Amino acid sequence: MRDAQSFDELYRGTARRLLRYGYAVTGDHTEAQDLVQEAVGAEPHRTATGRPGAE
Q1: How far apart are CA 47 and CA 34, in angstroms?
Q2: Are 5 and 11 in contact (CB under 8 A)?
Q3: Domain extents for the chain?
Q4: Strand partners, 46
Q5: Cα separation, 51 vs 30, whole angstroms
Q6: Which residues, including other chains, have CB under 8 Å from residue 40's CB and lie 6 or more apart?
Q7: Fewer CB near the last or first residue (10 Å), C or N of the chain?
């Protein structure tokens, strides 16, 4: 994801599913939100290869 608009579209399309999955894993809504925030927050730092800092 190289631009903010693409990332926003991805997030809007997957956020609910990610929260449900996080809740299924943790059994806690707050923990599920934290998991999603950590996972989504890490994504903008990745490059097209999927590895941080790689081109």
Answers
A1: 23
A2: no
A3: 4-45
A4: 52
A5: 28
A6: 11, 15, 18
A7: C
